[in-house]
């Protein structure tokens, strides 16, 4: 992922996993070359929708090399963004309504439940502490990471696996997105004047949050520091963003981190590539950072991995921490033309070396739900 | 006189509303119904902002228009502001779409194109 971010590799392409003929928009950022059988045995696969498969792979990667050591299973938790098994739902409804299937696979219900990704991680790693899923649409996994950070910071838990997974690229779900008229027909061009909307992606992003002293004591590789979390609700429009709500959430994250806004170097923007989101987010950034705003590097990695919905906050938190750790800003891909309504430095098209001390990751969801995470470089 | 006739009687006709196409009446009826905006206010120059039409109401109205005419209304690239800024631009886009769909249908039926 780090190399992809650095090289600005874009995963958006014509939909290949099914025939998109009935869709208005025929592009997405799909996980290709994925062979479930290479990672799970046949019996286990009966239990796993694609969304749980992605979650388990990301959790395995995040936990690889981590020796839980003496940490008690009850002190380890899992918090993931709630994510339905969309492809299973799509296939079973098709079987029922279009093919008049007499019966459906018996594990359809546990495969599709929105907590399945979280539960499968807890089961595989034997974590017996709190395990649940947070539901806030496109902010779900940012809420998950924020809550996980608070649970560790408060001393409630020693270690939490957190983030999100999403695998919703199927006809029924994308057809429903078509109706909202916010999907781009070709590319995701956040902050560019000729942007045409968002592109749906899929995938998973998972972090392991652990108490600082414990991680240091066992010489764990530390990629970054969770500094703070801000969340709120616009209590306004169901889908239109609010610059006041977004700004308040960013301020809350900065306050929770106990820093001044002037110390932030990089913001991984929500940056969906819709007309309204990007100008509203820019306005919010001006409101929070004032004279410091033009000095910020702001990029939307959705231009590379698409809008991964319930996984967006998780994948973008991973991108943010990699940027902090390795000293670079991932680019905003597809950028072609300056927009006076998006007048900040969005790091167009090419990654940039930058020593980042503190970074924010923004997530603003349908329903007017905002979640902002603050991360710092490992001291 | 049924309810829908009565509506037509109280709303401005095509000429008064500034649209030169009978189908515009049907489109405006649907927009008025879905957005709750008084039909008389739906003139070409009126902006969606001025009329206070939220984007979700507009999306729903476009869906109703698609269903009514059984046609797919392509998304307009949001170059300057919203997908549609005025009632005029929305109606013009729908009419263009309807014309194109009618031409395609005519071309698909042998002999009908003439």
Please outline what is shown here.
The complex is a heterodimer of chains A (379) and B (114). With 379 residues, chain A is α/β, with parallel strands linked by helices. Chain A has one domain: Peroxisomal Thiolase, Chain A, domain 1 (3-Layer(aba) Sandwich).
β-strand percent of chain B reads under 5%
Can you tell me the number of structural domains of chain A? 1
Unreliable runs of chain B, pLDDT <50, ≥5 residues? 1-13
Task: Characterize the biggest β-sheet of chain B.
Answer: none
Question: Keywords, please?
Answer:
heterodimer, A: 379 residues, alpha/beta, Peroxisomal Thiolase, Chain A, domain 1, five-stranded mixed sheet, four-stranded mixed sheet, 13 helices, 17% strand, globular, B: 114 residues, mainly alpha, Non-ribosomal Peptide Synthetase Peptidyl Carrier Protein, Chain A, 59% helix, disordered N terminus
Notes on the protein architecture:
- The complex is a heterodimer of chains A (379) and B (114).
- Chain A has a 5-stranded mixed beta sheet. Chain A has a 4-stranded mixed beta sheet with strand order 4-3-5-6, with helices on both faces.
- In chain A, strand 8, helix 11 (275-289) and strand 9 (297-299) form a beta-alpha-beta unit.
- Chain A has a single domain, classed as 3-Layer(aba) Sandwich (Peroxisomal Thiolase, Chain A, domain 1).
- Chain A is globular, with a radius of gyration of 20 Å.
- Chain A is of the alpha/beta class and 379 residues long.
- Chain A has 13 helices and 13 strands.
- In chain A, helix 7 (140-153) crosses helix 13 (312-326).
- Helix content of chain B is 59%, strand content 0%.
- The model of chain B is unreliable at 1-13 (pLDDT under 50).
- Chain B has helices spanning 3-10, 14-17, 22-35, 48-51, 55-69, 87-108.
- With 114 residues, chain B is mainly α.
- Chain B has one domain (3-108): Orthogonal Bundle (Non-ribosomal Peptide Synthetase Peptidyl Carrier Protein, Chain A).
- In chain B, helix 3 (22-35) packs across helix 5 (55-69).
- Chain B starts with a helix and ends in a 6-residue tail after the last helix.
- The longest helix of chain B has 22 residues, at 87-108.
- The A-B interface holds A 24, 179-181, 183, 185, 193-197, 237-240, 274-276 and B 54-56, 59, 62-63, 72, 74-75, 77-79, 81-83.
